[in-house]
Design brief:
The protein has 162 residues and is an alpha+beta fold. Helix content is 27%, strand content 32%.
């Protein structure tokens, strides 16, 4: 049995995000929140980074919005969920600065490549293309950043560089 399957069936709670209720810790097989909404699987590293960003931006007295598991519709009608979306109001020509942040744990390094027509890319690369290239979010002052779990840990200081 793979390590992922072992984790999913060992009865321990894992991190989830419900668009209605927020953060949830529930068993890995519980994909529906008690409110009836489908949840997105996330990690506690995301929670840590969100908390730290919120703390730091509040200390700096910045006007900002943080959205965990930010939904973004692509050109095919598929909804991608980005781990974190942060917007900080400012004086740029866009009225501030935004970032879509993806946090990649060890499972991301093992993603299979799509083999169909025009294939050769991973799910993460498709997600990036849908948001940044196709939607041209950079033209709205929104950039894209990928961090590893280690970079989100306290020792990584990612919150201060983000």
């Amino acid at each position: 049995m793979s390590q992922r399957k072992a984790r999913d069936t060992d009865g321990k709670n894992v991190a989830w995000y419900c668009q209605v209720c927020g953060r949830r810790e529930q068993p890995a097989q519980a994909r529906i929140c008690r409110c009836g909404q489908k949840m997105q699987r996330c990690s506690r590293y995301e929670w840590f980074l969100i908390d730290e960003l919120q703390h730091l931006l509040t200390l700096k007295e910045r006007d900002f919005r943080l959205h965990p598991q930010y939904p973004l519709l692509d050109h095919r009608g598929f909804v991608w969920h980005f781990d974190i979306y942060v917007w900080v109001n400012g004086t740029s020509r866009y009225g501030g600065y935004g970032e879509l942040i993806e946090i990649n744990g060890p499972d991301h390094a093992r993603q299979p490549r799509y083999r169909g027509p025009g294939g050769g890319y991973t799910r993460d690369e498709d997600k990036y293309w849908a948001a940044i290239v196709h939607r041209r979010l950079y033209r709205q002052g929104i950039e894209f950043r990928t961090l590893t779990n280690a970079e989100c840990a306290r020792r990584g200081d990612a919150v201060y560089y983000t």
